Amino acid sequence: MNERPKIKDIAERLGVSAATVSRALSDSGLVAEPTLSRIRELAREMNYRPNVSARNLRTQRAMAVLMVVRDVGNPFYLEILKGVEATARAAGYSVLMGNTENDSDREIEYFDMLRDGHADGMILMTGKLPEREGFLASVVGGAPIVVALEEIQNAGFPHVMVDNEAAARNAVEHLIGLGHVRIAHISGPVPEIMSVDRREGYRNAMAAAGLLVPEGYEPVGDYLLHTGQRLCRALFELPEPPTAIFVANDEMAFGVIHELRKLGLDVPGQVSVVGFDDLFLSEAFYPPLTTVSQPRTEIGRAAMTMLLDLLSGGLTPRKPVMLPTTLKIRGTTAPAPK
């Protein structure tokens, strides 16, 4: 097996110092052209790869960040991961995925990885901290953590998010504009802030239009497809079922539409459905899902950029970074049936 090329090998070939090669390959900005291009070109030709272990010993950093989510199988996170990874790689960091499945013990394991130096920072997307007294001060205090999308109040972390209340209100106003009066809302887990904000947007739109929210019209879900099916079935066991349903995420919305078909109801002819997220499957679904589109790649980029600022000693932003949403009107909403 050929010996792995080293910095000194590149330096000897080009007749420069090892320090000059090291500075060029670390993007220090201290090496001028044409030397910079010559070093990088030869490094590619020799298939030079940095010795990460040695670099980490020098810098006392793992050069890795954790992105912790509820369910790694949810396609919602893929576009966010793209944005995180692109920004992280450009700065020399790798990205590790953490999958909690809402298990508090698993959540603690990922925070332990951060505390023990296996990662330098964390992008947290679970919407909550482990339920352990004193956890925030004992484990998390001072750690570089950015919360993306799902707000955690009173934790002091910087946030990247969307205006969930306004986005939900806009979605329900679309249904009201189509003449729907009996509009139900399947929420995410309450009392998590994101779920509460989306439910508040639903309630505010209904109240502004002078519409009542009947008992049973606000079932609480967990963002999973089979839950959408189950809660939809319950809605259509009510004496006056809805003619429209605003669902807190696309995955549950898919479950709702599947159940409506099983019940023999046409979407959108008899029941309109609006989701939230704009998964890549939402446009390919039949009929294509009307949904609130979140700028997921931009969310990932913004969260990682904020984390890099923290890692370089920057101050924690006092206000969250708010990114815009768009209501994508497609094929699952139509005027209320006569």
TrEMBL record:
The keyword Hydrolase does not apply. It comes from the Bacteria. GO terms for molecular function: DNA-binding transcription factor activity; transcription cis-regulatory region binding. SUPFAM superfamilies: lambda repressor-like DNA-binding domains, Periplasmic binding protein-like I. Keywords: DNA-binding, Transcription, Transcription regulation. It holds the Pfam family LacI. PROSITE patterns: HTH_LACI_2 (PS50932). Gene3D superfamilies: 3.40.50.2300, lambda repressor-like DNA-binding domains. Signal peptide: none annotated. Residues 5-59 form the HTH lacI-type domain. The keyword DNA-binding applies. This is LacI family DNA-binding transcriptional regulator.
